[in-house]
Amino acid sequence: MNTAPRLHVVTGKGGTGKTTLAAALALSFAQAGAKTLLLEVEGRQGLAPLFGRSELPYREVELAPQLWGMSVDPREALLEYIEMYYKAGAAGRALAKFGVIDFATTIAPGLRDVLLTGKAYEATRRRPGNKSGSTFEGPWVYDAVVMDAPPTGRIGKFLDINAQLASLAKVGPIRKQAESISELIHSEMTTVHIVTLPEEMPIQESLEAVDELRGLGINLGHIFVNQMLEERELDVFNDKIDGVVATALRAEVNRYTNRVTRQEKQIALLEELDVIEIAHMGEEISFEILEFIANGLREA
Q1: Coiled coil: which residue ranges (predicted)?
Q2: Is 86 domain-assigned?
Q3: Which of 37, 80, 230, 258 has its CA 20 to 30 A from that of 104?
Q4: Which structural domain, as residue segments, surrounds residue 12?
Q5: pLDDT tens, position by position, 119-154
Q6: Other beta carbons within 10 Å of 186
Q7: How many domains are contained in the chain?
């Protein structure tokens, strides 16, 4: 799979396996030799167990060869922002002591989104020895950045928040930073992948997200259709099987067959999009299964 867009945003309706696919996508890039950063921005610590950890800190830690990860905390991001752009580390710590930072990041969801997208921007644009997102020539620190982003229901507002902020802030570093982040998100360097299930509600929400992202001028990547059931030739049961058992088995076969039929109808609605189907892997996702999915994505 091509890493050219560099910032890969992964979204999806809750329960579709969004976090698992974000982790697998990042791992696939790392397996291919790309130095990759995996970002979690919702504070759920959903990525950590996939890599045998209890949590991810607000700092980059190595998860696997060529793969680093971190959980972006809005509070820490705001303190970092104050220090980076206003050189006011002591003042920022004083604000934190009096609860101002916690109040700001809790009461203003728009501010949270600015800080979270800002961290992705900084990581995507970072050069060696530089954390300000400078545009001077030289190699990038990370070849790819993968963000486990908010769900499809709010992905448009999340990604477009900086464009809205830039239109409100007339001058100063806030406007400049918002414009830079918005430019990155609306450029060829960023792409959004949607994770869905082969079911009516997730497919419908995914199609609505596709329309919203296209309307915002944000590039669309793959549609990962997760938990696909395999079509199977299921033989008629032998008459020697106990009648009650045979009846139960036939009911399961019918249920499975009907679900396969329904999923094919839903997949047909995505025919004009770049679809990658992911087989049903069960409820528990181990690191070995994550590697298996990543191998498949690398070859897709």
Answers
A1: 246-273
A2: yes
A3: 37
A4: 7-228+272-299
A5: 999 999 988 865 554 555 568 899 999 999 999 999
A6: 17
A7: 1
